[in-house]
Specification:
The chain is mainly α and 138 residues long. The protein has one domain. 76% of the residues lie in helices and 0% in strands. The chain contains six helices and no strands. It has helices at 4-31, 35-56, 62-79, 84-91, 95-99, 105-128. Helix 2 crosses helix 6 and helix 3 runs antiparallel to helix 6. It holds the Pfam family DUF2809.
Length: 138
């Protein structure tokens, strides 16, 4: 179980990381053209989901958060097959940034890469910083 001191230092770091990911993702989305940029932005989407989960569920294991982040991202992508996100974007255009509009199987690969990358980054930071360390059960 993480101590209160560790949670007090981890949560602000997660909030800062999430803010950086949002800014970077939006900058890539709006200012960088191309398929590669789109895939990087998709991977960052999953990274953001992971960071939000880590903030909300501080006792959850990294591996479960990575799996959940990928699952949430994949469910949002699969929901695009229904056409509902596209209809939502017509009525509320900013929703396009969260839910997308068109399905792409390649996006699922980007989400997996994002989940793996953030898992290993969090693990490495946890090993190298006592203030970032999570639980001994992972």
């Amino acid at each position: 179980m993480p101590s209160t001191k560790i949670l007090m230092t981890r949560r602000p770091a997660l909030l800062l990381a999430a803010t950086v990911v949002v800014i970077l993702g939006l900058a890539i989305h709006f200012f960088v053209a191309g398929d590669t940029a789109s895939l990087v932005a998709d991977a960052l989407y999953t990274v953001l989901v992971y960071l939000v989960l880590a903030f909300i569920l501080p006792k959850a294991g990294r591996h479960w958060m990575a799996i959940a982040a990928f699952a949430v991202s994949a469910l949002v992508e699969l929901a695009q097959l229904t056409g509902i996100p596209e209809q939502l974007a017509v009525g509320f255009p900013p929703s396009r940034l969260v839910f997308g509009t068109t399905f792409s199987a390649l996006d699922l690969v980007a989400y997996a890469v994002g989940a793996v990358a953030v898992y290993f980054a969090d693990s490495a930071l946890s090993r190298n910083s006592g203030t970032w360390r999570r639980t001994q059960t992972e």
